[in-house]
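Hey,
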Amino acid sequence: MHINMKRSIISVFIILIVVCFGTPSVSQNSENSRSENFHTLCRYLNKNHMFNGNILIAEKGKPVCECTIGYASLENKQRLTENSIFELASVSKQFTATGILILVEEGEICVDQLVDFILPDFPYTDITIRNLLTHTSGLPAYEELFEKYWDRSKIATNKDVLDMLRKYAPPVHFAPGDQWEYSNTGYVMLACIIEQVSGLPYAEFMKEYVFEPLGLHSTLVYSRRYSPGSIPDYAYGYVKDHEENSYVLPDLLPSEDYVIYLDGIQGDGCVNSTAEDLVKWCQAVQRKDLISEKWWDEALRPSVLNNGDTTDYGFGWRIEKDSTDGRIISHGGGWPGYRTFDIQYLDKDITLVYLCNMEPASRTQHQILQAMKDIANERPFQMPSVPVKRKVAGIDKSIYTLYTGTYCLDSATVVTITTDGEKLLAQRRGGTPTEILPVSKSRFFVPGSETEIEFLQDGQGKITSIAILQLGTTILIRQEE
């Protein structure tokens, strides 16, 4: 979201954990001040060309450590500033959830209300608003419908998503409330509910009821291909073109064409903001502004499944409780060219913001965030290891047809391998194809991560499974046609 779940950890497989490469980094002196350690990290990232974006640590709503590295526009050689505006991708979900709770607070809707009562001809009769908020609806990924049926010369909107569901009514993955499965479709439906109930476009509702009341003057809902406009200090997102060994706008790569034809879809993403506006937003959450304490407490509580099990997700936030750091809420986002996170330590009133507009390797991102967490909580930290540079192997691409098929570990861990001309593509359930590149005849890597996929064969040379190379190895078995 290659489309993985749109604007949620996209362009790398959510189900995969990246491989550890490179030499161990050196622990920093815990006696250094938080600011000294933070800027040591930033200098290291800059020197090794490992990050392009803005990162920030705030305490009690005031930034105490900020860092800006790299470019907002490569074409114009325009550098980022601390006020640069980034696409937030799935970090947008917490804003959408808050918009829904504003309508609940005003008595316009109920959180346990059935969606088909609000959205005419919604083809699923037992899904509630709560199911949408908590990713327990079982709704299939709309991205798959658009990959299969959409005219890519057009840019889709929320209405088109709803129309697709009405027309094709793909089956749900499970009964509502039975399981947890991340669903961008659910959050697009929440945006549709906001529009249906309020009578306002999603962007206008968010501006009037969320952004302006909180003084988020640099925050907006923006679909730059669907509604082009000039935004000063806008951070354009770049992806790696492995064939040319350069960073380009995703619009220029055929494999990323969905950034254009899905650009008008909002609610699961498309909120754009700055690091400092996100700090203001996190403070509003900390103070429980906009809605009552009752609904904030509900939003920041783990959801409960039908069998009584709890998940680690509330209404638009991931929920964690740590024995040392206390209550933590967070969300990440991903869309070609962008990787974003906001993390709040509620009991400490500490906020971390991570905004990146040039896709790093997945493990690099994880290590940067871990270093930021350790620095923020005044613990020793490690420098991220410098990613290994891979060389794409020249192989006979006619063998790609031997690898095509569906590979499964269980019902949630499914990868489909297809070929598109000269490219080999991998697609997990709920996403759309991402090109994988060869390092040898049988081993491929996922661009933007250290994850590798090895095709395994039996004694007769038939491909029987794939190995996902992570911190360990996960084997997915090839399914018979």
